[in-house]
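To whoever picks this up:

The parser on our side crashed when reading a file containing two proteins. I've narrowed it down to the boundary between the first structure block and the second sequence. Both blocks are reproduced below exactly, byte for byte. First block:
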Amino acid sequence: MTKSGNRDVPMAKQVPFRREHHGDTFVDPYEWMRDKQSQDVRDYVAAQNRLCEERNKPLASLRDTLFEEFKSHVQETDMSVPTRMDDYWYFTRTQQGKQYAVQCRMPIDGPDDWDPPQVDASGEPGGMPGEQIVFDANRESEGHDFFRIGGMDISKDGRWMLYGVDVEGDERYDFRIRDLATGEELPEVFEGISGACFTPDAHWVFYTVLDDAWRPCAVFRHRVGTPVESDVEVFREHDERFWAGVGMSFDERSIVIGTGSKTSTEVLMLPVDDPEGEFQAFIPREDDVEYDVSFACFEGAGENGSDIPVAVVYHNALNPNFEIDVIDMHGHEPPYRLGEGVCVAAGSPYGCEQGDEVEPGASAKPIGAAYSNPGNPAILQGAHGLGIEGIAIHRNFVTMSYRAESLPHLAVMTKRDAAEDFLARRPWRFTELVPPALEDDWDVDESVDEVNEERAAVWHAVGGMEDDTAGPHAVRDASETIDDFVRAQGNGSAVHGASRKAMTSSDGATADAMSGETRRLYSIGAGGNPSYDTPRMRYSFSSYTRPGELHDVDPATGEDRLLKRATVLGDFNPRDYMERRVWIMARDGERIPVSLVWRRDVPTCDSAMFVTGYGAYEISSDPGFSVARISLLDRGVLYAVPHIRGGGEMGRAWYEQGRRLNKRHTFEDFVDATAALQDAGLANPSRTVADGGSAGGLLMGAVANLAPERFAGIEADVPFVDALTSILDPSLPLTVTEWDEWGDPLHDAEVYRYMKSYTPYENAPELADDPRVEVFPRIFITTSMNDTRVLYVEPLKWLARLQGAGVDAIAKIEVEAGHGGISGRYKQWMELAYENAWCLGVMGIAH
């Protein structure tokens, strides 16, 4: 042990290890930590955990307070809204004091029973007449420090359950088959697999196995009641860039194998009534083409009332932001090709690498330019950053999900109208679903009630046709990105952003009249619709300030029913909080959306700020409610989410501009957004804490190196900070599959040099005389020894390098957990209280 200031810090030994590639040599003194079983590694982990506990002792009271606050807002004994699947209503119960949920069910009253039963939410699991406990994770987890369900499938008759559990945190699941009538389990066990599914009759199980690199690589077939040793391999993916998975099609007529890399996919199918047959590709694989397929039917829409079977194909073969094609399969045998059929919706090619193949000059246009396509539904005309995300066809309705203006959207129409539009080859008459605003709240727009009244009248008149006179976005509050906001730099009030005066009013709220801001932020999506026959469509939504709600809507009439609103106990009132999305200009001129959340009665001036981001894999950081966030907001913290490139908020181009040789945009966007808010006077750098996990942890390490003066503290959860070392080694878990995301530095010298320029571990301060050390933020790292996605060795090496340079860095290292951290809701709340207490402590908030 050596001293660092007045604190004992366990300094890691240094054992030089040479890494040589493309004429470059890097000497890594901490690569010895990769030996997980060595006593030196175990001792180092134990010493770092002791240091972390010692450093955080002064925050013990705050941690306890935060934990109790979390509990005080949660309805601990609760249940979900029952969802019908086949002949049962399924629902989940939680109970006060129990770590895990209990899965339950009740039989339906008859084939026309589509109204969920009234169940006592405060009752004991299994206590209602006819209620059956399907799976009690509290009982199943007994004797295990870690427990996670890896999948659950139930036969069509409701008798047999196939389920998998992980008790190590390494994402290898043991699957078993249970007789729900007797509780007995069959002798066969599928050990250490990735996932599994039943055929509807439960006579067969198809499951996916992993290779040594933790890649789901092959699918096996098992006949129930026979030894697992006699199972047959039915598919193997030999290309190490690709993963494989297996499941049932929505109509349960086909067993489906999906295989895909980061940029290409393929779907193979086998009829359920021929489980021992050969899988066939629906459409053969093409490089850099992603597609998916589902099957449905336009009942009675054909000649003489015949049915029209259709294939619904979602793909990017002709449009980088995807399109949806519907193929009439009546008399059309395979093979099929991408692009045939009727195009229902197509995304914007603007700013995309392959955009010019759709429209000349499209790749050079701004990502957020308004896009119109005469073949698209009316609600998509003029959308900005339009990406098509999917479609689902049920017996009575059709839903479509898409992204525009950096937010998710959901649209619906009747099946009858969809059939008419399909046969007439005209744009489909979707209507966008907009969640109801809070009465008498800041998010109420006077035009919303008028638009809703107008929509209801139109809905009744033409069965879902949106009135063109209302405008395609009349029901939304998202507007054009704001030019005057980005022009504010240079006037003495802001850099890459807006003046504080422009963004705040006397009560601390963002000025409602500010051009270009998005006032209503929410995530919305169809959910809880597993049955093809359901007459009403369920959807859910939530925002940063509004707890989640589950609704159902009648697509024929527009009647919307609230089924459940998440209960937040205590004195919580969503009207006490504000949320806005504003746009800042990054250093290369791109406009970046930033979500802001704060308590309404706390002026957003020189605030403590919690800023978080991800920016990878085309994953969008969409609005969502968090009980834990309330504790931050109530203490005057400004919560900020820069929606940086590398994510998918503005469609495929947003992703492309933040991956591979464009990856530095991700880090620069985050720094520029943080700087804009600070330079506008909204937040104080000395009280700003940043947070990100996994690929977002790489982001944290990169911005700490890039702009250490902008952050007082950084929390990096399971951080991917030694990215170059990992991506260079194809024997490590997931490495080869990641080359499409980050580039291949093993075989490409340009990629190697580019990654080396930003990878956090290699660019962090190494010596105390590095000038960055004086302004470097405090660092708090979390990691897990059983993590298979980001190996523990990456954050440990980063920690050792930072501590060696004199940076104030500590780590909390879980011994019994994986990439997602510990399991059990109370344990997770305690963990979050631990992390948030550290963040608040750095901000100078200790109460």
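<<boundary where parser fails>>
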Amino acid sequence: MSADARIEAITARIVERSKPFREPYLDRVRAAVSKGVHRSVLGCGNLAHGFAVCSPAEKTALAGDRVPNLGIITSYNDMLSAHQPFETYPALIRQAAHEAGGVAQVAGGVPAMCDGVTQGQPGMELSLFSRDLIAMAAGVGLSHNMFDAIVYLGVCDKIVPGLTIAALTFGHLPAVFIPAGPMTSGLPNDEKARVRQLFAEGKVGRDELLDAESKSYHGPGTCTFYGTANSNQMLMEIMGFHMPGASFVNPGTPLRDALTKEASKRALAITAQGNEFTPAGEMIDERSIVNGVVGLHATGGSTNHTMHLIAMARAAGIVLTWQDISELSDIVPLLARVYPNGLADVNHFHAAGGMGFLIKELLKAGYLHDDVRTVYGQGLHAYTIEPRLGGDGNVHREPAPHVSHDPKVLASIEHPFQHTGGLKMLSGNLGKAVIKTSAVKPERHVIEAPAKVFHDQAELNAAFKAGELEGDFIAVVRFQGPKANGMPELHKLTTVLGILQDRGQTVALLTDGRMSGASGKVPAAIHVTPEAIDGGPIARIRDGDLIRLDAVGGTIDVLVEAAAFAARTPATADLSANEFGMGRELFASFRAIAGPADQGASVLFA
């Protein structure tokens, strides 16, 4: 089935807008491809360094360019649950490459930090910028010019977007992303959130809180709620970078290992030495990007991707805007209820039919472009499957179920949870912002209340503990943008504002910072741009100003007479405490040149 006419129109607009960037990008990709297998351009000394530790047989093969060499870019470390499984992957990939008649080498590692560890801590101010640093680090690994294709091992928040930027920068090379999968289900996410609220209210102690957190985050794999990490996996599959069905298989299982080996062999099969050459820069086009946005809306995915997708697209010469994302949100229905948008976790989503069922339903109604290239071949229809481990130890695929195994978690296209996507773009006299609506009750989609202004989340939490947050209000937390302090997540606000809302107060959040996929039941207008440090309108808000947040109409306004508001002197903040400690001094140049949120908050494409 062809795509819905509205989807086609938005895609065509992106194509036209992107031409000044996309066409030169493709020219560069094709020029790099035309040079052939790249080891042939290396001098003997260069090549000797490149394969010094290989076996004699591998050296002979690589010296003559007779076999493909598979590069591995890995985000492995053994502290973080999501990346610990990658420890064993290089051995599996080398084995698979040998079986396929190729060679595999670890080309380089990239940093992988965890927003869960750094929430509310100074290190969180490095988080967003780590995306661009990861792309740069991968570029260093690939600069040796030794490889015919690349497999990327990454899962979490900034890692996959950073690796995607790298894959598209080296777009002349085929790229396959290999995930680790989610940890098995532990303490339900809603129970964890309940204990957090009790702790914030002083009703349970630290021991009880740590016990609940440890039972929720308890083993290898990604966290099981639907935040940025699992939104990443959905994106890589629906955009065609994963093998079909690879996203949500648990680590340490025979099927997970079989998928890893299969992906490695497939990467070797799509090099220029074979008959299915699939350079990443040619494979990913405007249709692939639109498919990613559609998947984000249909699943109620992370708000971080309103920035990441823009930066990822830009790496391929594609200009995606918040307006495109917003218009797609008005078209695409919400088909998934995964915490914080529901009670289920990603393992329940996978069991209900997972990506195969989701893609099948979206294709059925024309919400996706089927006529795309993927690492698996031509057409997204090939992804409407469920993976199984065959008796031969290899991956086998069955058609996705005709009906959801759990309609409370994964809905059909005929009976969606809501008729619009889970994200909404806002604009008004305060600038532009993003709101995640999929977890917010409809009666809270329009909020009009006076402002209470803070310059960091610690100020708001202190006001809560002092009993100063009474009545209805919209919390304005500013000087949290990319240039101010690296745009940290403000996750510690979730619990406090949730408590106040549960007490019957009407509350909302307005910030130039981030809330990520953890944005929950409280209305939160985030990523406000222009940010406060640039003198954006958010810097002129005062305590008591009436603010109207309308997630139905897509507006965010301060209800102050225009001339009087414009005449105000923007507030300033002492940000010196954010400039040093925990590595923040190393990122001063990044803060200075970071682009605005609606352009990807990037230092690479500013």
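After patching the parser it read the second block fine. DSSP finds 22 helices and 16 strands in the chain. The chain has a mean pLDDT of 94.
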